[in-house]
């Protein structure tokens, strides 16, 4: 080395190794990316809505542990499929906002008889859909994305009818966005495909759905 020449960073395949500070900064960014929590999001949405749609006495968590775990896995699978953390968060945020608003409407007794009957049909359809999703995971060569997509579209339509004018056009748009993604046949094919990380995401989703079915929370 010539006198006065500054040492150059060691390079591998044309790229300089990151400094220790840069490495830690990168690890912190990764850590922040993995801290998305459906339950935390639900609590935030609940606090914002209660002042507008219900009294403080109706405070409750509308996303329980099992459903929170399912939504967290859906978030991870969506992020993998779309290659977009922002899009995955948007989908789950829309789903949580609709769920919380629906819970507030129910607790406030704001739905009429016909609307409650439609909501009961929605719940029955969602339960059948969950059972079908779990069955497709457990029994080889039974998966049919068209069946799941059709069931999701039916649930979407029933939910639109049940909440009707109680929700804004923006909220109805959120419903369309959520069900549109979940019923995307390419997404369903990837989720039920043989490769990782989708296999692990689906296994944990179905474990959560089974728990919800056992607890009669879906």
TrEMBL record:
<dbReference type="Pfam" id="PF05527">
    <property type="entry name" value="TNFAIP8"/>
</dbReference>
<dbReference type="InterPro" id="IPR038355">
    <property type="entry name" value="TNFAIP8_sf"/>
</dbReference>
<dbReference type="GO" id="GO:0042981">
    <property type="term" value="P:regulation of apoptotic process"/>
</dbReference>
<dbReference type="GO" id="GO:0032007">
    <property type="term" value="P:negative regulation of TOR signaling"/>
</dbReference>
<comment type="similarity">
    <text>Belongs to the TNFAIP8 family.</text>
</comment>
<dbReference type="GO" id="GO:0005737">
    <property type="term" value="C:cytoplasm"/>
</dbReference>
<protein>
    <recommendedName>
        <fullName>Tumor necrosis factor alpha-induced protein 8-like protein 1</fullName>
    </recommendedName>
</protein>
<keyword id="KW-0963">Cytoplasm</keyword>
<dbReference type="InterPro" id="IPR008477">
    <property type="entry name" value="TNFAIP8-like"/>
</dbReference>
């Amino acid at each position: 080395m010539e006198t006065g020449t500054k040492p150059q960073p060691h390079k591998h395949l044309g790229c300089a190794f990151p400094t220790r500070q840069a490495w830690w900064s990168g690890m912190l960014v990764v850590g922040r990316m993995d801290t998305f929590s459906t339950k935390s999001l639900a609590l935030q949405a609940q606090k914002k809505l209660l002042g507008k749609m219900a009294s403080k006495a109706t405070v409750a968590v509308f996303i329980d542990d099992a459903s929170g775990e399912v939504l967290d896995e859906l978030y991870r699978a969506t992020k993998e499929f779309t290659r977009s953390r922002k899009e995955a968060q948007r989908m789950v945020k829309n789903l949580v906002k609709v769920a919380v608003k629906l819970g507030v409407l129910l607790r406030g007794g704001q739905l009429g008889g016909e609307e409650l009957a439609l909501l009961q049909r929605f719940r029955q359809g969602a339960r059948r859909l969950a059972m079908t999703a779990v069955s497709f995971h457990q029994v080889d060569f039974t998966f049919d994305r068209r069946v799941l997509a059709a069931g999701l579209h039916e649930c979407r339509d029933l939910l639109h009818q049940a909440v009707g004018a109680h929700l804004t056009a923006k909220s109805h748009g959120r419903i369309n966005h959520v069900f549109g993604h979940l019923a995307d046949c390419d997404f369903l094919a990837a989720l039920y495909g043989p490769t990782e990380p989708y296999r692990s995401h689906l296994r944990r989703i179905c474990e959560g759905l089974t728990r919800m079915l056992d607890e009669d929370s879906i």
